[in-house]
Amino acid sequence: MLKILKYSFYDLMRSRWNYVYFLFYLALGFVLLFLNNDLSKAVITLMNVIIVLVPLISTIFGVMYFYNSKEFTELLLAQPLKRSSIFLGQYLGVAGSLTMSLVLGLGIPFILYGLFRSDTIWNFSLLLITGAFLTLIFTALAFNISLSNENKIKGFGYAVLLWLFLAVIYDGLFLLSLIIFEEYPLDSFSLAATMFNPIDLSRTLILLKLDISALLGYTGAIFRQFFGTDKGLIVSILMLILWTVLPIGRLTYKAKRKDF
Amino acid sequence: MRYGAFLFFLFSIFSGFAQVPKTIEICPSCKIKTIKDGISNASEFDTLLIKKGIYNEFNILVDKPLTLKGENFPVIDGEERGEILRIVSDNVTIDGLYIINVGTSYTTDYAAIRVVKSENFLIQNVVLERLFFGIYLEKSNNGKVYHNKIIGDAVDEYNSGNGIQLWYSHNVQVDRNIVQGVRDGIYLEFSDNVTINNNVSANNLRYGLHFMFSNDDVYTNNTFENNGAGVAVMFSKRIKMVDNIFRKNWGTAAFGMLLKEINDAEIVGNTFQENTVGISIEGSNRIEYNNNNFISNGWAVKVLGACYANSFVNNNFLYNSFDISYNSKLNDNVFERNYWSDYTGYDLDKDGIGDVPYRPVKLFSYVVNRTPETIVLLRSMFMDIIDFSEKVSPVFTPDNLLDAMPLMKKSE
Question: What is the domain-level CATH number for residue B155?
Answer without folding.
Answer: 2.160.20.10
